[in-house]
Write a structure and sequence with these properties.
The protein is mostly helical. It contains five helices and two strands. The longest helix has about 30 residues. The two termini are about 20 Å apart.
Length: about 140
């Protein structure tokens, strides 16, 4: 019988663990800053205030999950896949918003978008690497 994705627990490598801790802390910090200073951020970046609020709100539960996984040093394959997928979706949205003409930020807004693109892109690659190259405990036991 094949174990479900939830039961396949990965021991995170040091790179993935550190990346999750940093990403979780950044997501929580940016989320809280956006909630408390959203209107000011919208004025400085010429991004819609509603977008800043929604993005900030979305960052909080993601940050908590990323921090929790990094702190534990272990995560189910499903959780790691989910975090990787969320980061990939975030990258697609950040690219699609200006290309689609839905937002027209100023220079500061472009810098914020670049940060919102770079960090999730790196996280997607790090988590994807972890999913591909970390041995599953059950597979390691069968090979011996």
């Amino acid at each position: 019988m094949t174990p479900s994705l939830d039961s396949q627990v990965l021991a995170l490598d040091p790179l993935a663990r550190t990346a999750l801790l940093v990403d979780g802390a950044l997501a929580i910090a940016l989320g809280l800053c956006g909630l408390f200073t959203g209107r000011l951020q919208a004025e400085w970046t010429e991004l819609p205030a509603a977008l800043v609020l929604v993005a900030s709100t979305a960052l909080l539960p993601y940050g908590a999950r990323a921090w929790e996984a990094g702190r534990a040093g272990r995560a189910s394959r499903a959780r790691t896949s989910g975090l990787c997928l969320l980061n990939a979706c975030w990258v697609v949205v950040v690219i699609a918003l200006p290309i689609g003409g839905w937002i027209d930020p100023n220079a500061v807004g472009w810098m914020l978008l670049a940060a919102h693109l770079a960090v999730p892109l790196v996280m997607t690659l790090v988590l994807w690497r972890s999913l591909r190259f970390i041995e599953r405990p059950s597979a390691a036991g069968r090979e011996r």
